[in-house]
Amino acid sequence: MISIIMKNFPTPTPFDCLPPQAVGQTTFSRKQVVFHQGMIPQALFHVASGAVILERHTEAGQKVVLHRAGTGDLIAEASLFSSAYHCTCIADSDATLIALNKQAVLRMMATNPEFAGALVKKMARQVQRYRRQLELRTILPAVDRVLAGLSDGWLQGSVMQFASDIGLSHEATYRALSTLVANGKIQKTGRGKYVALS
Amino acid sequence: MISIIMKNFPTPTPFDCLPPQAVGQTTFSRKQVVFHQGMIPQALFHVASGAVILERHTEAGQKVVLHRAGTGDLIAEASLFSSAYHCTCIADSDATLIALNKQAVLRMMATNPEFAGALVKKMARQVQRYRRQLELRTILPAVDRVLAGLSDGWLQGSVMQFASDIGLSHEATYRALSTLVANGKIQKTGRGKYVALS
DNA sequence: CGAAACGTTGACCGTTTTCAATTACAGTGG
DNA sequence: CCACTGTAATTGAAAACGGTCAACGTTTCG
Fold first, then answer.
1. In b/e form, how buried is each residue of A18-56, taking b as 16+ CB within 10 angstroms?
2. A84 touches B: beta carbon within 8 Å
3. Which of A7, A68, A81 to mutate to test the interface with B (most CBs of B within 10 A)?
4. What crossing angle do the helices spanning A159-166 and A142-152 adopt, rounded to 10°?
5. Which end of chain B is more exposed for a tag (fewer CB within 10 A), N or C?
6. Is the per-residue pLDDT at B169 higher than 90?
């Protein structure tokens, strides 16, 4: 029964129904800025390939990685209803993004139920991810958190990225990884690559 | 222009349009469990009055407060697409919740654009809140984090609640508050009540 | 009135952050 | 093909920080 529900709104690119002129495809190279925190949102983006980092700059000037979006992810959905991007988006690798005009999306949302459903579903997933991320950050000590994060599959990009995601300094993360390897809890499969055992 | 967009989907209880039989009103007393993590989701809830705590229990058994939802908030929306509640919901005070049948909501979402829009908007807000919460937790040291959280208006309930929200032990939070008062950064306005000074 | 929960503060200890330094790659231009 | 440069990966040591334990005053509520 549940599986039926899950299929109500097809996941694969629900943005086909948008008018062509509302959709723009753009390629970005690593480190290139897609949009800046504070800018007036013109569009939201669908990651067609590659990955981008969503980060925020605190008042103190430190940067916080909020999310690393990969292929298939939707970003800046929250900007649909806000008058400024709440974070900065930077390409983490060469990436292809599909820009979706904000107005067009709002219009489509009001007329195409399937589209709206897909949007809700995407956002629900994101909420769950954030929840898990918050949960991870309460795990102490670092070794346990790293193991939990690793088991969850958060280590996809670099270890530094992983460290940011789970809220540790990269040094602490490396140390925890070393410890876990020494304890036989995880295995090192390459430079900056690890897998959880058991 | 933005204001117009914001008004596209009226915030006040967009659930009126649901069929009456899909809506159930229930009252809960403090500490009463609304639903348990792991249960199969039958409904999502709209907080009509009072407040509830959404918490999660990690593998290690520690609890993490994910969110404190107050009057007007929608909870368990993420469960719309998942086969189990991802957190436990407990009334934080006497509260009145409106239960919205999951199936009915899914159906309504597919047929009523306005409803779907309201849902998307609610979730967008939630996403932003989580993002901010994650951002807060990267702020070090504790004094800075507490000040930031206070300025953001996170201290609404008890200090212990606030401490949970920003990811500190309550002791550390109290100490930070004391320090901030001593520094003249904030002002104490009563037992467990503080306000940030410009 | 007593229990339970919150508010508050102090001290101690373990962890993490930070600072610092070294190694290892990957890309770039000569 | 190689030196050159920037970034990631690693590890060490010291200092700072926050968690935990402990204790006590205070408010709330049955």
1. beeebbeeeebeeeeebbeeeeebebbbbbeebbbbbbb
2. no
3. A81
4. 110
5. C
6. yes
What span, in angstroms and rounded, lies between the C-alpha atoms of A185 and A176? 11
Share of chain B above pLDDT 70, in %: 85
Question: Is there a contact between B81 and A131 if contact means CB atoms under 8 Å apart?
Answer: no
Q: Is residue A54 a contact partner of residue A65, using CB atoms and an 8 Å limit?
A: yes
- For chain A, say whether B64 makes contact (Cβ under 8 Å): yes
Instruction: List, for residues A73-101, the tens digit of each pLDDT value.
Output: 888 888 888 899 988 898 888 888 888 88
A-chain CB neighbours of B148 within 8 Å are: 58-59
In a domain, B170, yes or no: yes
What is the distance between the alpha carbons of residues B70 and B68, in angstroms, rounded to a whole number? 6
**Chain B CB contacts of A2 below 8 Å:** 83
- pLDDT of B63-115, one tens digit each? 777 788 877 788 888 888 889 998 889 888 888 888 888 888 888 888 888 88
Å from B132 (CA) to C4 (C1')?
33
Å: B45 CA to D29 C1':
28
Verify that B119 and B145 share a domain, yes or no: no
Q: Does A113 have pLDDT greater than 50?
A: yes
Domain count, chain B: 2
| Mutant choice from B53, B131, B152, B170 vs A, greatest count of A C-beta within 10 A | B131
Which bases of chain C are contacted by protein, using any atom under 7 A from a CB?
Answer: 6-11, 14-20, 24-25
Rounded to whole angstroms, how far apart are CA atoms A95 and A34? 10
* Domain at B126, CATH number: 2.60.120.10
Alpha carbon dihedral A76, B114, B67, B91, in 10-degree steps, equals -170
pTM: 0.82
* Domain range for A152: 137-196
pLDDT, tens only, B143-165:
999 999 999 999 988 899 899 99
Chain A residues in contact with B83 (beta carbon < 8 A)? 2
